[in-house]
Amino acid sequence: MASFEDLSKQVITGNQVKVKEVTQALIDEGSAPLDIINLGLIAGMNIVGSRFKNGEMFVPEVLMAAKSMSAGIEIVKPLIADKDMPSIGKVLLGTVKGDLHDIGKNLVGMMLESGGFTVINMGIDISPEQFIKAVKEHNPDILAMSALLTTTMLHMKDTIELLKEEGLHNKVKVIVGGAPISQDFADEVGADGFAPDAASAVDLCKKLLS
Amino acid sequence: MYTTRSLYTRANYEVNQTTLWKMLSEDQCEEIFMTVLELLERTGAEVKNKEALEIFEKAGCWVDGNRVRIPTALSEWAVRTVPSRITLCNRNGKRALSLETTNVYYGPGQGNGQILDPVTGEIRKPLKADIVNTAIICDSLKNIDFAMNNGLPSDVAPAMAEVHAFEALVSNTTKPIVQNVENVAQAQAIVDIAAAIAGGLRELQKNPFVALYIATEGTLVHSDETLAKVIFAAKNGIPFVYNTKLVAGDTAPATPAGALVVAVADVLVGILLAQLVRQGAPVIGGGFFTIEDKANGIKPLGAPEVELMGTGFANVMRYLRIPNFGFAGATDGKLSDAQMGLEAAFSILHAGLSGTNLIHGCGLLEYGLTGSLELIVMGDEVMGMTRRMMKGVEVDEERLARGVIDAVQPGGHYLGEEHTMKFFRSEFWWPTLMNRNRIDDWIAKGAKSMGQRVKEKTLDILKNHRPDKLAEDKLAEIKAIVAKAEAAIE
Ligand code: B1M
User: Fold this and answer.
1) What is the CATH topology of the domain spanning B80-391?
2) For chain A, what is the mean pLDDT?
């Protein structure tokens, strides 16, 4: 008998093959698809998140875990109507203008997805105008900006000011992150939150939406 | 590193599987060896032990008074018959250290009359409790492979200090022990203790977890007591280090090559005597070298010449296929400071790269006068880094990573690849003391300097590490042996 606990374990070790096997077995044994996601796949990823935060797991392991979890989701997805797919919020994510670093940002994206968020990943080198256009189009709960360069991080401020000009500031929470970003900087530019790492970003988003 | 597996890698031709500092060529080693043979035949050595003189004479040496001149053939016989490998076991008799080829094992030092109190930072005389602490520290650290006492207890009868030190070590670590002995009575007590733990002398010989440390006076003089200990160790079939200590420019020629000649000659005298007493007696050739610091009149331990000559000695011993013993991890500094870190790291790296089998000395401050547990703890970190260097770059199909490089494509990254996952833990060295926190995290954790982190780790080990204990009946047996030896000595 396959179990949710076993599925979580396989996610934690990042074993894609096993995750697929156990997911399929759970489906065959009649487990509810949403339970497989919430009690198995996401539960495992939550543990990965907290271990990463504590320095017990490292980026490559987190990425493998996230990949294996996605592989499990792919199997379950066709069994769930689109509207029933669990989502605790919509996050619009991108690296700011002039900045091409995306490894940390993608990690944040994966962890958010694994944490139950719907993520729209816009990619890199995103100008304030592009962010505003996307906010209007997708109506996200959270706008998440990443920057890795001291020379590009000021574009976060530009984006937040443009949001205010457009009167969107109260409709969407803004979070920022990346190696040179600090809580002080986030306060200075008027962001609603800052997270030092990907796992904290998930906690932060949950907090902001609760 | 604490393994039963030899780290030596076979090859049909030259192999650089590990980074090795081979300072002397085969030809240079041969030249040194030939000079040693000539010297032993022409100049000979002073031998002050009557039994040894008789043994040497009977074997065909030319004995004139205390001067023993050794025919080349006899020296060569000794080099052939002394074992080219010795396995030191742990206290449970499990094979632990393979003293062979260029396998490297680290441990603390001894001979210091003072200790840096790990709590108060005060410099004072060592107590038996300090040796217990040394054992606990050695037991807990991954890169410390064997124990030595790091100081003689001052709160016991002086004539019994080594025996008490050994009791403290053997009761608090399972790692192999290298134990200094002042005389045969002490050596007997220590072998008795070890045999009691092993289940008899024969079992101890089969799986020895102690090597006696016998220091010779250097400069081709071998005292009565020193050689009595050699005869004792050989008769009992207990491995021992025959260690010469030389000061280039003072007790040995100022030239490193000349100092090496004297050292190898010294060691060969001890090895020959042991082989004549019991053919095949396990001996570890020890060489310690320093210089005279003319400005201060002291003999430094942090000088580059210590490792320069130490490496030369290891190279010659390797050439002769004799297990060897050297020195690293000490400092002339007086406290946990940058000098301590620099000198210890410099020497630990070089001694490691030299392929010295047993490297002792980590923990000695103030050119050997003071022992520091903190230095052992910091040294462990450097040993880990050194071992990563020595592991070298493994080149094989999987590690060449052709497939994953193509899968990632130019401009991509390797963070999420199976290949990275497989290797990132084992191919990288992971620090335990070196700080790589982002500055905010470092500040949040108290903005601690290396010295503070080392001290905290030291105290944490002392508080929390629990070495495997000996069984009650063994402890009682040991107590009785110590009491008996004490009564006999007084
Ligand atoms: C929205 O909410 C959130 C919340 C949390 C968020 C978040 C968002 N975003 C990130 N986080 C947080 O969560 C993640 C994990 O938990 C963390 O993300 P990180 O991104 O910090 O961590 C990642 C998981 C791993 N880290 C990384 O991915 C960054 C690693 C380093 C080595 C790095 C890389 C890899 C690259 N680089 Co660049 N690069 C460096 C970096 C040096 C370093 N050792 O950090 C850094 C950032 N780079 C630098 C520079 C200068 C540059 N780089 C450049 C280029 C590149 C590459 C393209 C080669 C490559 C990026 C590849 C890619 N696809 O991303 C150039 C700029 C290009 C550009 N216009 O952007 C170039 C200018 C170099 C040049 N002269 O060409 C330096 C910045 C200096 C500064 N003060 O600004 C740098 C610190 C290196 C250095 N020491 O000089 C957290 O910050």
Assistant:
1) TIM Barrel (3.20.20)
2) 93
